[in-house]
Amino acid sequence: MAGSGGAQGAKAARTQDPEGTRQNIIEVASQEFALNGLSGARIDEIAAKTRASKRMIYYYFGDKEGLYLSALENAYRRVREGEAQLDIEGLAPLDALRRLVEFTFDHHHQHEDFIRMVMIENIHHGEYLERSKVIRQLNVTAIGTIEQIYARGLKDGLFREGLDPIELHWQISALCFFNVSNRATFSHLFGRDFGAPGAQEALRRNAVDMVTRHVVRPDRLVTLGL
Predict the structure, then answer these.
(1) In this structure, what are the phi and psi dihedrals at residue 224, rounded to the nearest 5 degrees?
(2) What are the structural domains of the chain?
(3) Average pLDDT of each block of 10 consecutive residues along the chain (226 residues)?
(4) Which region ranges are annotated with the description Disordered (predicted)?
(5) How far apart are CA 85 and CA 94, in angstroms?
(6) I want to staple 153 with a disulfide (CB 3.0 to 4.6 A). Which of 93, 161, 188, 221 is the partner?
(7) d(CA 122, CA 116)
(8) Integer-rounded Cα radius of gyration of the chain
(9) What does each C-alpha distance from 100 to 44, 181, 186, 191 come to in angstroms?
(10) 41-44: which pairs have CB atoms within 8 A and are 24 or more residues apart?
(11) pTM for the full model?
């Protein structure tokens, strides 16, 4: 009797909070996809770890590919929402650029599932990402942020002319992405724990320095102490 009441309570909770249930499914699915890939993840396993039934997962997402795409969109949404919360407009251009690099490094370090999801999507040659208008729109804002910082730095005579904001986004992403994607292999290859706090602090500082030195005009490097 108690078991029946618990099941009814869970069902009621799902009915009363459909968005919470949907988000719970996405969060659990993201972990499964990051660990096992699209082909290796199982809907049965995902359902067993959520507040939802297998039938409900299919109701919300259609099929496993639909769930995977929703998880991928959610991963990108999180990083862009974090960027949106940065007080970049209130900072000088160089400080804003540094803050953006720091945020990207910290986010990737703290959300390793995001890195694995992106790696898996690259294995699929971006096939699912290409289907998503949501992800493309989210990344418009990412480039817009860099364009704004770069334009202000140019106006102040601080940044070099002729840089491409999309390429700058690529370079920031590369430094911060590699820190997670290749940390284990580099640590084993060279016998140094690149995940240790001291190593992470140095890599974070170096990522900021590399980007700022690339963007700042050569004649301004000395005066800025770079």
Answers:
(1) -90, 0
(2) 7-62 (1.10.10.60), 73-221 (1.10.357.10)
(3) 44 63 93 93 93 90 95 93 87 95 96 94 93 88 93 95 96 96 96 96 97 93 76
(4) 1-22
(5) 18
(6) 93
(7) 10
(8) 21
(9) 39, 20, 25, 31
(10) 41/68, 43/67
(11) 0.86
